[in-house]
Task: structure prediction
Amino acid sequence: MNQPKTLIAPSILAADASCFREEIKRVTQAGADWIHIDVMDGVFVPNLTFGPPVIKQLRPHSNLPFDVHLMIEKPELSMAQYAEAGADMITVHVEASVHLHRTLQAIRGMGKKAGVSINPSTSVESIRYVLGEIDLVLVMSVNPGFGGQSFIAESLNKIEHLSELRRQHHHDFLIEVDGGVNAQTAKACVDAGADVLVAGSAVFGAVDYAEAMASLRAPTF
Result:
């Protein structure tokens, strides 16, 4: 797979919640590739965030792909609502979906890109047998549920493992990394094989969004 550049997916979890519309417009104009939207249910993770109505309201304000990360129990029961609200990619957790293969097929059946995410304590082996059914793997490099955590270095081994499996079996999924990504950790992720970097405070905490994203892409120049 020939990816022309590292893709940057700013996470609106770190944006100013009082002006999401303006924040999304700003980050779109600054050169983001995707908009990453973390959905939390207060059960699978100890926090609550966005639902389909918020995503639907935000959808008209960016032409970028909406990368919707469902950190929720039983995602198969509500993922159609996220698809209808404007998600382009829907990622579910292997830890939260009992019938993962069926869930991924259902996402693709709705015409959306299908992703699977693994928590820091979850092995790559847990998703080996669905790698041919997905468009992306999201490696959590922090424990999910809160922003601003430090990068877990062991995640690099997972990225390398996934990159090797992709090469060996000629798969075509993207490798995405979420958690503690900044200008210092981005290079290690890209060197390990990551294609997409989710960044929250590294982008939305910066004065210049374009400059912040450029610093994340710098390892590929």
Q: What stands out?
A: The helical segments are 20-29, 52-58, 79-85, 100-109, 155-169, 183-192, 201-204, 209-217.
